[in-house]
Amino acid sequence: MYHDGVISACGGIPDYNVCYDYDISSRNWTRVNDLSEDRYFPTSSVVGSRQDWLISGGLNNAAGSATTEIRANGVSTPGPTLNEGVFYSCQLTLNETHVFYTDGYDALWTSILDYEQGIFHDQVR
Question: Which of 61, 80, 111, 119 lies in the 20 to 30 Å Cα band around 93?
Answer without folding.
Answer: 61
